[in-house]
Specification:
single chain; alpha/beta; Rossmann fold; 2 domains; disordered N terminus; binds adenosine-5'-triphosphate; membrane; ABC1_TM_sf; P-loop_NTPase
């Protein structure tokens, strides 16, 4: 994968440090003291050695040396702890804002990206950013301080020896800076490859039953292995560069030590330099080398951190659904035009057209992909030819000039062949997507003029896949009605014939439904979706094939429940089984994205050939 054109800079990292300035100032002070103590150490050794050589009293220097060493250790530990703590807080802030941003993204962004890759941005990329603080920024700052202090003192002790040292450092630093650019590019490749691998693992694990049933474990493992191998190769390419940094520095530094020792030894023998001065110079050489080494590795860390920041910023730069709706928690508090929130509404579609956006290369570079896209994916059986034809037509309008009205308080069914665009109409009513043409109005107000959250708080949606979130029965029920009491939960479970579920174990409503509700049958999942929607008590009900997975007895119960619920609600149901909607106020027949006919069951049997054909295939009429 190619790195994108946008590259994060250190400046873009600084806003993440806002809110941590005070603690960072404390860290800076502690770090200054610790650096100062390290610099004072060789001076004490110089005084000690020169005093002993001149047979002068040296006890005071011994005590000072001990105090400086202990002090350095204590301040060093304090600096390290405070820095790690700050880094964790920064990572927490980044994760919070990233998760907030992810949940605020429009559905189309999830259609284009792979869930695993997004997970890896919240997990491993934010962890990499952490190292910019812990072993990055401060390491560089304190290294620079130590470096300059050592330089000044070395020049003061012996300018000639310093000249030798300087030439070695310049050669080494030049080599490392050259490598750093390459390291950043490689680091981005590594993170992208890890993202793709996580996405592949996520795909395999989320579809584990299908994979096992298809005896496709080995093939799926091979797919993951391809991604893992790419991550391995990217890691190796990065390791090769990182490995070159160390030897370049070692050669230059060891060379400098040998030459300084040789020249310094000759000058001490010739009486041009005191032994204590040579020892202090060599200790400063250590102090010079240490920060150069850590500054170089900090530089590498920063490059990796910035590559991770690139990937985080890619998500941060995406347009959220709407800025005023980023605070999803505020949902139920969103205002609606006065008096409209609680009563059923009139829906009107006028000349509505829509196409799903084709997948683009830009999204591909940021982890877009195929099989695990979140969003409007169907579970209805579609013939392989039909599905493939639909995918071939991905750029064709899915809805083309669709117009119909749903009177307030009425029951309307959307019927038609698979792929006709029925679920898409519901998705547009929820504003998961925006129409490419035409208008949709609710009570006369065009949907774009309503805050999305206010619109959605009026709608109860039973999705085709009836998704169940990991967690307990009560968690799932309270998703859209957080204030509901246990009694209300039990009543709504009874209304959909799920009362036995709450009594299934001692846990009652706290029954754990497992990952993605794996412990429920298909029909139970569907009924749970009903229960959740009825509990939320919204004036508009949108239901996508809401009885496709239940037996006929349960279907009758649900029809009764819907009959009661629709007394004071507007209901729109997508249905394949015409018998379930034959008594509805109106039925809209969709075919290839267009309205083929509108009417009651009886009217359509007379007027619509397509409807008559569907009814006869379902043995509702004989032709
Ligand atoms: N998220 C998506 N991205 C791209 N294309 C999509 C997406 N969701 C649906 N489509 C395409 O849009 C067309 C209409 O799909 P839709 O789900 O609205 O049909 P439907 O009438 O509800 O079908 P079914 O009865 O099988 O559920 C199909 O061709 C489908 O492939």
């Amino acid at each position: 994968m190619q790195p994108t054109a946008q590259r994060a800079t250190l400046r873009e990292f600084f806003p993440y440090l806002r809110g941590h300035v005070r603690i960072l100032v404390v860290v800076a002070v502690v770090s200054l003291i610790s650096t100062g103590l390290s610099i004072a150490q060789p001076l004490m050794v110089q005084q000690l050695v020169n005093s002993v050589s001149a047979s002068e009293p040296a006890t005071i220097f011994i005590w000072l040396l001990v105090a400086i060493t202990l002090g350095g250790a204590v301040f060093g530990a304090a600096q390290s702890y405070l820095l790690q703590r700050t880094a964790e807080s920064v990572v927490l802030g980044v994760r919070r804002s990233l998760v907030g941003r992810l949940l605020a993204l429009p559905i189309k962004e999830f259609d284009r990206r792979r869930v695993g890759d997004l997970i890896s941005r919240v997990g491993s990329d934010t962890t990499l950013m952490r190292s910019v603080i812990t072993s990055g920024l401060f390491e560089i700052v304190s290294s620079i301080l130590m470096f300059f202090a050592a330089v000044v003192l070395m020049v003061l002790i012996d300018p000639l020896l310093f000249g030798i040292t300087l030439s070695a450092v310049v050669v080494g630093a030049g080599g490392v800076l050259f490598l750093a650019r390459l390291i950043r590019r490689r680091s981005r490749d590594v993170q992208d490859a890890v993202g793709s691998m996580t996405a592949a693992v996520e795909r395999g694990l989320s579809g584990i039953r299908t994979i096992k049933a298809s005896v496709a474990e080995e093939r799926e493992a091979a797919v993951i292995d391809v991604e893992a191998t790419k991550a391995f190769r990217a890691g190796i390419a990065m390791a090769r560069l990182q490995a070159a940094v160390q030897p370049i520095m070692s050669i230059c530094i060891q060379g400098a030590f040998i030459v300084v020792l040789a020249v310094g030894g000759i000058r001490v023998a010739a009486g041009e330099l005191l032994l204590g001065d040579l020892i202090a110079f060599i200790l400063y050489l250590f102090l010079l080398v240490m920060p150069i080494g850590s500054a170089m590795s900090a530089f590498v860390q920063i490059q990796s951190g910035l590559a991770a920041l690139d990937r985080i910023q890619e998500i941060a730069r995406l347009e959220p659904e709407r800025a005023d709706e980023a605070g999803l928690v505020q949902r139920s508090a969103e205002p609606m035009p006065a008096g409209t929130a609680a009563r059923p509404g009139t829906i009107e579609l006028r000349d509505v057209s829509f196409s799903y956006a084709p997948v683009d290369d830009d999204a591909a570079a940021t982890g877009q992909g195929g099989a695990t896209a979140v969003g409007a994916r169907r579970s209805t059986p579609v013939s392989p030819e039909g599905a493939l034809a639909a995918l071939d037509d991905i750029d064709q309008p899915v809805l083309d000039g669709v117009s119909f009205s749903v009177p307030a308080g009425s029951r309307t069914a959307l019927v038609g062949p698979s792929g006709a665009g029925k679920s898409t109409v519901l998705a547009l009513l929820e504003r998961f997507y925006e129409p490419t043409g035409g208008t949709i109005r609710l009570d006369g107000v065009a949907l774009p003029d309503l805050p999305r959250s206010a619109l959605r708080s009026r709608i109860g949606l039973v999705e085709q896949e009836a998704p169940v979130l990991s967690g307990t029965l009560a968690d799932n029920l309270r998703l859209a009605a957080p204030e509901a009491t246990d009694d209300q939960l039990r009543r709504v479970l009874a209304a959909v014939g799920l009362d036995a579920l709450g009594d299934r174990s001692d846990d009652g409503l706290d029954l754990n439904l497992g990952e993605d509700g794996i412990r429920l049958s298909g029909g139970q999942r569907q009924r749970l979706a009903w229960a959740r929607t009825i509990l939320a008590d919204r004036p508009l009900l949108l239901m996508d094939e809401p009885t496709s997975a239940v037996d006929s007895r349960t279907e009758q119960l649900l029809q009764r429940t819907l009959g009661e619920a629709s007394r004071d609600r507007t209901v729109v149901v997508v249905a394949h089984r015409l018998s379930t909607v034959a008594d509805f106020d109106q039925i809209v027949v969709l075919d290839q994205g267009r309205v083929a006919a509108v009417g009651t069951h009886e009217e359509l049997l007379d007027s619509s050939e397509l409807y008559r054909d569907m009814a006869s295939r379902q043995r509702l009429v004989t032709v």
